[in-house]
C-alpha cells in the first residue's frame, strides 16, 4: 500500500529534472541563434583591414553610420566630405548608439558629439571622439 504513494513522488522529481534540462537548453539555443547574425557580419568583413568598410553612397549627408565591429562611426557632414571617428564614447566607453540631428549620440548617459569634428555637443563626456584615418576612393571608404 505504501509503494504506490512513492511512485507519484518519483515521477514528479523526474518531471522537474526534465523541466530544468529544458530550461537550460532554451537559453543556450537562443544565444547561439543570436550569435549567428553577428558571425555573419564578421564573416562579411573578414578582410576588414584590406577591404572597404562601406560605400560612400551608404553614408547619409548630414548623418553617419556606426560600424560596431570596427568600433568606428563614419559621417558625411557635407556632401562629399567624409569623416571617421572612434565609436567608443569618451565618457565611460560605451559604443555610441545613433547618429541624428547632426550629432553622434551615446545612449548610455546622453553624451552627443559633432559629426563634423567629433567635439562634445552635450555632456557628460568632456573629451571629443578621436578622428580616425580613412581613404575614400572609387566610391568606397576604407580604414587607413
Ligand atoms: S558612456 Fe557615453 S555618455 Fe556615458
TrEMBL record:
Rieske domain boundaries: 51-143
Taxonomy, superkingdom: Bacteria
One GO molecular-function entry: metal ion binding
SUPFAM superfamilies: ISP domain (SSF50022)
Cofactor: [2Fe-2S] cluster
Matches recorded under InterPro entries: Rieske_2Fe-2S (IPR017941), Rieske_2Fe-2S_sf (IPR036922), Rieske_Fe-S_prot (IPR014349), Rieske_Fe-S_prot_C (IPR005805), TAT_signal (IPR006311)
UniProt KW keywords: 2Fe-2S, Disulfide bond, Iron, Iron-sulfur, Metal-binding
Gene Ontology CC: membrane
Function of the molecule: Iron-sulfur subunit of the cytochrome bc1 complex, an essential component of the respiratory electron transport chain required for ATP synthesis. The bc1 complex catalyzes the oxidation of menaquinol and the reduction of cytochrome c in the respiratory chain. The bc1 complex operates through a Q-cycle mechanism that couples electron transfer to generation of the proton gradient that drives ATP synthesis.
Full protein name: Cytochrome bc1 complex Rieske iron-sulfur subunit
